[in-house]
Amino acid sequence: MRFRKRDEAGRRTRDILRSRCVDDHPQSFTVMFHPVPEEHFYSYPNKYQYRIPVTGPSNDAVLRVVSRTIAKLNQEHMDVAAVGMYAINLTNSRLWPLQTPETVDVKLYAFKYQKEEVPVTFPLRLLPYTNSLTADRIQVRMPGGTWETLENSIVKQAAKWNPFWPIESQQKWWAKNGKHFELMRLPIEVRHNIYRQAMGGVFFPKIAEMDGRGPEPFLSVQPFLGSWLGISADCSKWKTPSAKYMSRNLLLVSKKVRQETLSAVWVGTTKRFTEPLVLEKCADTPLPPHPHWLTSIHLDMTLFDLFRIFEVNVNPTLHFGSSGGHVYGSILVNMPSLKSLEISVNCPRELEEGRKPDHNPWKIFREESQQHPNMEVKPCFKVAVDWMLMGAFPYIKGIPHVELLGAVKTSLKQKWGYILSQAYVERDRDEEFRSFRWEEEVEELALEGHVITQAPPCTCASSCVRWQMGTIPFDEDD
Ligand SMILES: [Zn+2]
Fold it and tell me: Which domain of life is it from (predicted)?
């Protein structure tokens, strides 16, 4: 039981005594045997810390074995090392040597844990017919009444009373046994994995003014705009109020580790983009952190943004391709180092539940025009994602590896997986010898005459847009 720091000593122990009827609470024994001296009853923690007066035989063999066992377990066991314990005599009696061979005497010992002001009391006994005093001849009565071997009881109690997080515990443990982790002896690939995980694992590029050189990319581990957690290319600047999500200490270990860490997170990781504008700025930055930092891109954007990037226009009718002006999709074409692209479509259920921003072209149109309050704004994902990929095709056909993730029907994954891999193989052929004729396909689609005032209706067996409680999130195989 932890004291409230402000309380006087008397009050600090009172709560422990109140809980003495609970068998699971052996701190109350300690306070009953050695109450707070009256003169300290009203002392605050800065004036008085609870302590047991020196009692018991000065030369207690059992206590020596207990101390040796704790010292041994400090080396071997994380919780024991972290909890920082030692044993104290609570009474004057002696367990060893045994009075008669068959004697089973019991004596109380207190165990002090570093963070606990009041030690915890346990009854100890020796097994009958003990003729040499070793740790395995000592037993401890645990809360609940079972007797455990000394080692077991120490380990169990340490696990129960250890107040530290596993990582802190490990640091305390290794500080005691001198163990250390030989990072540099691991293969470089494994080191890189460790660096990436320690730095957050998932990286969202952002653009910001870092140190007067003009806007430059930095990596954040949070997708939201305006979150200032991250590192710049040379990590000269940390724009971060708290490095909670990135293990900044890694950058302080040594020059080599710092270099390796930076290169591990900047090169060879997938960069996630949640906004077209950020993607564009990163692709065009005059200060690229590394020539090959954008080899793998993940687009985690709304349907509205994906339509915008890939020039899928639905207003007033469905048509594809640039209507002049800004073309985000061409960013991907002009990115020679790009080897892998993941396009993630947000699940409609997540959108409905407000876990992701729900922007799609029809919804935006209804909001902006304000003339069609009753129009259907939820598209069938089987149709809408197909259109999105149709628009994307000219921009992504030259990328060696394209993966479709999220709310994409299996049939669409198969269809577009085949079309895209075929297009990559045929990338050097003339238009007329290619198996997928994009221009003809979009013309055909345009002829279907979809109009903006009606989102493509869903005819899927398990509806993309109408949910029932308890149904599966998104039926990909439909
Ligand atoms: Zn559907």
Answer: Eukaryota
Q: Answer yes or no: pTM beyond 0.90.
A: no
Distance 464 CA to ligand 1 centre (A): 4
Q: How confident is the model at residue 241 (pLDDT cuts 50, 70, 90)?
A: very low
Q: How far is ligand 1, taken at its centre, from the CA of residue 381, in Å?
A: 5
Does residue 239 surpass a pLDDT of 80? no
Burial track 92-130 (b if 16+ CB lie within 10 A, e otherwise): eebbbebeeeeeeeebbbbbbbeebbbbbbbbbbbeeeb
Residue 339 Cα to ligand 1 midpoint, Å, equals 31
Residue 24 lies in a domain: yes
CA 261 – CA 183 distance, rounded (Å): 12
Q: Are residues 145 and 239 in the same domain?
A: no
Q: Does 246 share its domain with 375?
A: yes
Lowest mean pLDDT segment, chosen from 130-139, 213-222, 410-419: 213-222
Determine the distance separating the centroid of ligand 1 and the alpha carbon of 347, expressed in angstroms. 12
Is the domain of 255 the same as that of 139? no
Residue 325 has pLDDT above 90, yes or no: no
Contact 4, 123 (CB under 8 A): no
Q: By residue range, what is the domain housing residue 320?
A: 190-447
Comparing 6 with 379, the larger pLDDT belongs to 379
Using the Cα atoms of residue 59, residue 62, residue 65 and residue 69 in order, give the sign of their dihedral. negative
